[in-house]
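Sequence only, no structure available. Ideas?
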Amino acid sequence: MQKLSGTLRAQGKTIGLVPTMGALHDGHLSLVRRARAETDAVIVSVFVNPTQFGPNEDFTRYPRDIDADTALAAGAGADIVFAPPVEEMYPKNYSTYVSEEAVARPLEGASRPTHFRGVTTVVAKLFNITRPDVAVFGQKDAQQVAVVAKMTEDLNFPVRIVVAPTLREADGLAMSSRNRYLSGAQRAEALALGRALAFAKGMVEKGERRSDRLVAEMTHLLAQYRRVRVIYVALVDRRTMEPMREVEPGRSMLAAAAWVDEVRLIDNVTL
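Reply:
I predicted one. C-alpha coordinates follow.
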Protein backbone atom coordinates (compact mmCIF):
# COMPACT_ATOMS: atom_id res chain seq x y z
CA MET A 1 0.00 0.00 0.00
CA GLN A 2 2.84 2.41 0.80
CA LYS A 3 4.39 1.74 -2.62
CA LEU A 4 1.05 2.39 -4.34
CA SER A 5 0.59 5.65 -2.43
CA GLY A 6 4.11 6.66 -3.43
CA THR A 7 3.29 5.98 -7.09
CA LEU A 8 0.13 8.11 -6.88
CA ARG A 9 2.09 10.94 -5.33
CA ALA A 10 4.82 10.64 -7.98
CA GLN A 11 2.08 11.07 -10.59
CA GLY A 12 1.13 14.34 -8.91
CA LYS A 13 -2.19 13.03 -7.60
CA THR A 14 -3.71 14.10 -4.32
CA ILE A 15 -4.90 11.28 -2.05
CA GLY A 16 -8.04 11.14 0.05
CA LEU A 17 -8.46 8.63 2.86
CA VAL A 18 -11.73 7.47 4.39
CA PRO A 19 -10.93 5.29 7.43
CA THR A 20 -13.73 2.81 8.26
CA MET A 21 -14.32 -0.43 10.12
CA GLY A 22 -16.44 -1.71 7.26
CA ALA A 23 -20.14 -2.63 7.41
CA LEU A 24 -20.51 0.35 5.10
CA HIS A 25 -23.77 2.31 4.91
CA ASP A 26 -24.91 5.51 3.23
CA GLY A 27 -23.19 7.59 5.90
CA HIS A 28 -19.83 6.07 4.99
CA LEU A 29 -20.56 6.45 1.29
CA SER A 30 -21.21 10.16 1.76
CA LEU A 31 -17.66 10.40 3.16
CA VAL A 32 -16.30 8.58 0.10
CA ARG A 33 -18.14 10.97 -2.21
CA ARG A 34 -16.77 13.93 -0.25
CA ALA A 35 -13.22 12.56 -0.62
CA ARG A 36 -13.87 12.00 -4.32
CA ALA A 37 -14.81 15.67 -4.69
CA GLU A 38 -11.72 16.84 -2.79
CA THR A 39 -8.93 14.63 -4.18
CA ASP A 40 -7.69 12.75 -7.26
CA ALA A 41 -7.45 9.27 -5.74
CA VAL A 42 -9.61 7.88 -2.92
CA ILE A 43 -8.55 5.14 -0.53
CA VAL A 44 -11.12 3.54 1.76
CA SER A 45 -9.61 1.54 4.59
CA VAL A 46 -11.67 -1.32 5.99
CA PHE A 47 -10.23 -2.56 9.26
CA VAL A 48 -12.05 -3.69 12.38
CA ASN A 49 -9.47 -2.33 14.78
CA PRO A 50 -9.10 -4.54 17.87
CA THR A 51 -7.25 -1.93 19.92
CA GLN A 52 -10.25 0.41 20.11
CA PHE A 53 -12.56 -2.22 21.60
CA GLY A 54 -12.76 -2.78 25.34
CA PRO A 55 -12.59 -6.29 26.84
CA ASN A 56 -16.37 -6.77 26.98
CA GLU A 57 -17.28 -4.94 23.78
CA ASP A 58 -18.47 -6.25 20.41
CA PHE A 59 -15.21 -6.87 18.53
CA THR A 60 -15.96 -10.51 17.71
CA ARG A 61 -19.51 -9.87 16.52
CA TYR A 62 -18.88 -6.56 14.76
CA PRO A 63 -20.35 -7.00 11.24
CA ARG A 64 -17.86 -7.90 8.52
CA ASP A 65 -18.54 -8.29 4.78
CA ILE A 66 -15.53 -7.20 2.73
CA ASP A 67 -17.08 -8.14 -0.63
CA ALA A 68 -20.14 -5.98 -0.03
CA ASP A 69 -17.97 -3.18 1.37
CA THR A 70 -15.68 -3.23 -1.68
CA ALA A 71 -18.62 -3.01 -4.08
CA LEU A 72 -20.25 -0.18 -2.14
CA ALA A 73 -17.01 1.79 -1.83
CA ALA A 74 -16.27 1.43 -5.55
CA GLY A 75 -19.80 2.52 -6.41
CA ALA A 76 -19.34 5.69 -4.35
CA GLY A 77 -16.09 6.58 -6.10
CA ALA A 78 -13.29 4.83 -4.20
CA ASP A 79 -10.25 3.87 -6.24
CA ILE A 80 -8.67 1.57 -3.66
CA VAL A 81 -10.01 -0.48 -0.75
CA PHE A 82 -7.27 -1.21 1.78
CA ALA A 83 -8.30 -4.10 4.03
CA PRO A 84 -5.23 -5.30 5.93
CA PRO A 85 -5.30 -8.33 8.23
CA VAL A 86 -4.82 -7.74 11.94
CA GLU A 87 -1.38 -9.38 11.79
CA GLU A 88 -0.21 -6.77 9.29
CA MET A 89 -1.33 -3.82 11.39
CA TYR A 90 -0.31 -5.33 14.74
CA PRO A 91 2.41 -7.94 14.17
CA LYS A 92 3.65 -10.18 16.94
CA ASN A 93 5.34 -8.23 19.76
CA TYR A 94 3.72 -4.95 18.65
CA SER A 95 4.09 -2.49 21.54
CA THR A 96 3.78 1.11 20.31
CA TYR A 97 0.66 3.24 20.84
CA VAL A 98 -0.37 6.85 20.25
CA SER A 99 -2.32 8.61 23.00
CA GLU A 100 -4.02 12.00 22.93
CA GLU A 101 -4.53 12.91 26.57
CA ALA A 102 -6.87 15.92 26.72
CA VAL A 103 -9.65 15.83 24.12
CA ALA A 104 -9.90 12.05 24.57
CA ARG A 105 -10.47 12.19 28.33
CA PRO A 106 -14.18 13.11 28.84
CA LEU A 107 -17.40 11.59 27.40
CA GLU A 108 -16.44 8.45 25.44
CA GLY A 109 -13.02 8.46 27.07
CA ALA A 110 -14.54 8.35 30.54
CA SER A 111 -16.69 5.31 29.80
CA ARG A 112 -14.31 3.60 27.33
CA PRO A 113 -10.85 4.42 28.73
CA THR A 114 -8.75 2.57 26.11
CA HIS A 115 -10.92 3.41 23.10
CA PHE A 116 -9.24 6.54 21.78
CA ARG A 117 -5.74 5.17 22.25
CA GLY A 118 -6.75 2.51 19.76
CA VAL A 119 -8.28 5.07 17.41
CA THR A 120 -5.28 7.40 17.37
CA THR A 121 -2.86 4.51 16.99
CA VAL A 122 -4.63 3.02 13.99
CA VAL A 123 -5.25 6.39 12.34
CA ALA A 124 -1.59 7.35 12.75
CA LYS A 125 -0.61 4.04 11.15
CA LEU A 126 -3.09 4.56 8.30
CA PHE A 127 -1.73 8.06 7.70
CA ASN A 128 1.80 6.67 7.48
CA ILE A 129 0.76 3.80 5.21
CA THR A 130 -1.51 5.68 2.79
CA ARG A 131 0.09 9.17 3.00
CA PRO A 132 -3.15 11.07 2.37
CA ASP A 133 -3.50 14.77 1.70
CA VAL A 134 -7.05 14.72 3.06
CA ALA A 135 -8.82 12.40 5.53
CA VAL A 136 -12.62 12.48 5.76
CA PHE A 137 -14.53 11.67 8.94
CA GLY A 138 -18.19 11.91 9.92
CA GLN A 139 -19.66 14.38 12.40
CA LYS A 140 -21.58 11.58 14.16
CA ASP A 141 -18.30 10.51 15.75
CA ALA A 142 -17.63 14.08 16.85
CA GLN A 143 -15.23 13.32 19.69
CA GLN A 144 -13.27 10.94 17.49
CA VAL A 145 -12.95 13.71 14.91
CA ALA A 146 -11.74 16.17 17.56
CA VAL A 147 -9.21 13.67 18.94
CA VAL A 148 -7.87 12.84 15.48
CA ALA A 149 -7.66 16.54 14.57
CA LYS A 150 -5.65 17.24 17.73
CA MET A 151 -3.34 14.29 17.10
CA THR A 152 -2.84 15.40 13.49
CA GLU A 153 -1.89 18.90 14.65
CA ASP A 154 0.29 17.81 17.54
CA LEU A 155 2.25 15.21 15.54
CA ASN A 156 2.60 17.43 12.46
CA PHE A 157 0.90 15.08 10.03
CA PRO A 158 0.53 16.90 6.69
CA VAL A 159 -3.11 15.86 6.45
CA ARG A 160 -6.18 18.08 6.19
CA ILE A 161 -9.09 16.74 8.26
CA VAL A 162 -12.49 17.15 6.60
CA VAL A 163 -15.66 16.64 8.64
CA ALA A 164 -18.81 15.62 6.76
CA PRO A 165 -22.30 16.03 8.27
CA THR A 166 -24.14 13.22 10.03
CA LEU A 167 -26.55 11.34 7.78
CA ARG A 168 -29.79 10.11 9.28
CA GLU A 169 -32.30 7.45 8.38
CA ALA A 170 -35.76 8.61 7.30
CA ASP A 171 -36.96 8.16 10.90
CA GLY A 172 -34.15 10.37 12.26
CA LEU A 173 -31.80 7.68 13.60
CA ALA A 174 -28.16 8.60 12.99
CA MET A 175 -26.64 6.12 10.53
CA SER A 176 -24.32 3.64 12.23
CA SER A 177 -23.03 0.16 11.51
CA ARG A 178 -24.29 -0.85 14.95
CA ASN A 179 -27.88 -0.01 13.99
CA ARG A 180 -28.10 -3.44 12.40
CA TYR A 181 -27.93 -4.93 15.91
CA LEU A 182 -31.28 -3.33 16.77
CA SER A 183 -34.53 -5.27 16.77
CA GLY A 184 -37.69 -3.48 15.66
CA ALA A 185 -38.67 -2.70 19.25
CA GLN A 186 -35.15 -1.52 20.12
CA ARG A 187 -34.97 0.68 17.05
CA ALA A 188 -38.24 2.37 17.98
CA GLU A 189 -36.73 3.36 21.33
CA ALA A 190 -33.32 4.22 19.83
CA LEU A 191 -35.05 7.12 18.08
CA ALA A 192 -35.26 8.78 21.50
CA LEU A 193 -31.61 9.86 21.26
CA GLY A 194 -32.08 11.94 18.13
CA ARG A 195 -35.42 13.27 19.33
CA ALA A 196 -33.98 14.43 22.65
CA LEU A 197 -31.14 16.22 20.85
CA ALA A 198 -33.60 17.85 18.44
CA PHE A 199 -35.79 18.97 21.34
CA ALA A 200 -32.82 20.52 23.13
CA LYS A 201 -31.69 22.23 19.92
CA GLY A 202 -35.19 23.67 19.65
CA MET A 203 -34.85 25.03 23.19
CA VAL A 204 -31.62 26.76 22.17
CA GLU A 205 -33.27 28.25 19.11
CA LYS A 206 -35.93 29.71 21.43
CA GLY A 207 -33.26 31.32 23.59
CA GLU A 208 -32.24 28.76 26.21
CA ARG A 209 -28.52 28.89 26.95
CA ARG A 210 -28.08 27.09 30.27
CA SER A 211 -26.30 23.76 30.14
CA ASP A 212 -28.00 22.34 33.23
CA ARG A 213 -31.45 23.07 31.80
CA LEU A 214 -30.68 21.46 28.44
CA VAL A 215 -29.11 18.37 30.02
CA ALA A 216 -32.00 17.99 32.49
CA GLU A 217 -34.62 18.13 29.73
CA MET A 218 -32.78 15.63 27.56
CA THR A 219 -32.23 13.25 30.47
CA HIS A 220 -35.91 13.51 31.42
CA LEU A 221 -37.00 12.69 27.87
CA LEU A 222 -34.68 9.70 27.59
CA ALA A 223 -35.78 8.35 30.98
CA GLN A 224 -39.28 7.81 29.57
CA TYR A 225 -38.06 4.94 27.39
CA ARG A 226 -37.86 1.56 29.08
CA ARG A 227 -34.98 0.14 27.03
CA VAL A 228 -32.83 3.29 27.09
CA ARG A 229 -30.12 3.80 29.75
CA VAL A 230 -28.27 7.09 29.58
CA ILE A 231 -24.46 6.94 29.67
CA TYR A 232 -23.94 10.68 29.35
CA VAL A 233 -25.59 13.86 28.15
CA ALA A 234 -23.36 16.93 28.00
CA LEU A 235 -22.94 20.39 26.56
CA VAL A 236 -19.32 20.66 25.42
CA ASP A 237 -16.92 22.68 23.33
CA ARG A 238 -16.96 20.83 20.00
CA ARG A 239 -13.19 21.10 19.54
CA THR A 240 -11.88 20.39 23.04
CA MET A 241 -14.82 18.37 24.47
CA GLU A 242 -14.55 20.44 27.66
CA PRO A 243 -17.89 21.00 29.45
CA MET A 244 -19.60 24.34 28.94
CA ARG A 245 -21.97 26.10 31.34
CA GLU A 246 -23.75 28.01 28.60
CA VAL A 247 -24.28 27.69 24.86
CA GLU A 248 -21.91 29.66 22.66
CA PRO A 249 -23.23 29.48 19.07
CA GLY A 250 -20.74 27.93 16.68
CA ARG A 251 -18.64 26.54 19.49
CA SER A 252 -21.05 24.39 21.49
CA MET A 253 -22.22 20.84 20.91
CA LEU A 254 -24.71 18.63 22.70
CA ALA A 255 -23.46 15.04 22.89
CA ALA A 256 -25.23 11.97 24.17
CA ALA A 257 -24.60 8.26 24.54
CA ALA A 258 -27.01 5.58 25.70
CA TRP A 259 -27.53 1.86 25.87
CA VAL A 260 -30.61 0.56 24.09
CA ASP A 261 -30.71 -2.78 25.86
CA GLU A 262 -27.25 -4.17 24.92
CA VAL A 263 -26.60 -1.84 21.95
CA ARG A 264 -24.48 1.27 22.63
CA LEU A 265 -25.34 4.31 20.51
CA ILE A 266 -23.97 7.86 20.30
CA ASP A 267 -25.30 11.03 18.71
CA ASN A 268 -24.69 14.76 18.82
CA VAL A 269 -25.84 18.09 17.47
CA THR A 270 -23.86 21.27 16.98
CA LEU A 271 -25.51 24.49 18.15
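The domain at 2-164 is CATH 3.40.50.620 (Rossmann fold).
Hope that gets you unstuck.
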